[in-house]
Every structure is written in structure tokens, then in C-alpha cells.
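Take a protein:
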Amino acid sequence: MTTDSATGPGGGTGIAVASGMLKGVFGHGVLAAFEERGLRARVYGTASSSGLSGGLAAIGRAREVGVDYWLRAAAGAARTGMSQVALESIREYGPTLRAGLFRDDAPDLLLATSRVTTEAGAELTQGPGAKRLGRQLLRDTLSGDRSWVERHLAPVVFATRPERAGPGAARLTEANYDAVAYASTRMLHAWAVPAEVDGEPYVDASYTCACPAREVAETGVSSLIVIGSDPFPLYRDLYGSEEIVDGALLGRARVLVVRPADDLKTLGVDYGAAAEEGLVGAYALGLETGHRFADDHGELLTNGSGS
């Protein structure tokens, strides 16, 4: 039994899905299992690579697409590069997502990004030095050094219904969806094509908001399922600024973390490259994990997302 996902501004279930590049295939499997079991959230929070899988889950199409998207994405990453993979996926799935996400009866969708706030940051992120900067920002994650990010970037969450989201949420529309979706994915070390939304420069959500759990909690949900793609502690951003803890409370929401027990590398799936059999195995693991979660939390299936 499920209930309507857009019946009110508070209560019910929220789902936040962390970024993870190709490791996001696991989260897609979890969402597909939820879809099979009738677990549909009132609010979906997504960032970077989870924008596609979370968007498909919000319109009830995650299971239909399944692992096929990830197989094409991995093949395309090796052949044409990540920018073209992201742009092609938006061309392919954008019409379906736009048609479903902005319906009156659709769940709320939050899509996180990082806005570039300074001229110096724009020059670096949009110009020929972007790849070098991106590599440095990845090295900074080892020490948790967020100094460049704090000086030049700010998290911006676009929402289909910003009036229900937290302070500062921007409006996600059919007109800007494609630009926001691409901007959310643009990791500087591997994405050659710059990203802009309404003429302003943006980069990948993960630098400032790799998992918009707090933003989903701010919509007033009572249960918050957070899906990660690694067995390690789950954090708000790449730099470990805020841990998302299973069983804790964010606002009034009880946090329930879903993640793989082992590193997906053991299956042949890493962030930027993956073997075909590894993707199939990681997706199957996500399905299995999602069904096990549904077995353990039947109250979410009964109460649905809008109660």
C-alpha cells in the first residue's frame, strides 16, 4: 500500500541519495527495489550521479531503466569522456524526467549543485586550469582541507517545490532542468565542458553537498532514508564536514542509512571506471540490499510517503 507522494508539506518519508559516480549503480539498485516494494518517498534528494537514479525513482521509472544506463555510462566514459556521458544521458532521459517531475502529483525533488561565487573561481573552473584545480581539490579531500571550496563555492539546492524546501532553495523548472542536471555532475578533474545555470558558473554538487540529507530533513519528513555507495562513514561533502549517522535525528527525521557492506571495488566498480560484470553485480547487490531494507522496515511500506 502506498499513499500519494505530494499530499502535504510535512511528515512521511524522504530519501537522500549520495553521489558516487559509477558507484551510484548500487543506489540505483536500492531505489529499484524500493519501487518494486511500493516504498515511494514524499521527497527525493539527489546530487551529481544520483540525480538520474533519484529522478527516475521519483517518477516510478528506476526499475525500468535499471543497470542499462550504467553499462552505457561506463562504456561512454572510456570512449568519449564524462562530460559527453552526462550530456548524452540528459538528452536521452531528460524528456521523460521533465514530463514526470513537474506533475502536480509528483514527489518533491531536490537536486544539489555548487555555485561558483567569485570571479577568480569562475576563471579557474570554467577555463583551461579546471582539470588541474580538480585534481588538487581531490588531493585536498585526504586532509579535509575545504579552504578553496569555502572561498569560492556555495551549495545551492534546486527544488521542484522550493517553498517546501529549506532556506535558500532555488526553483527547479522544466526550462532549467537540463542545465542544473549537468551542473550537478561536473567534477573538474574529469568533465571538460563547463557548466552554467542562468549564466552563472556551477560545478559538481559533491564539493559542497554530496548528500543532501539535511536539506531533505528540512522539508519536515519524519523518516529519512540515506543511500550511500561506500561502506565507509557517510558525509555531507567530499571533505567530511558533517557525518550522516544511522539512527540519528536530523531535525525531526530519523535517519536510516543504506549502503553496501563492502567496497564495490571488490566487484570491479570504482568511481570513474567499471567492468560490465561489476556493474551488473553491484546493481544486483543494490536490489538485494533494498529488498532486505524493505523487509526490515515494513512500517515505511504501510505508511507510504505522504501520511
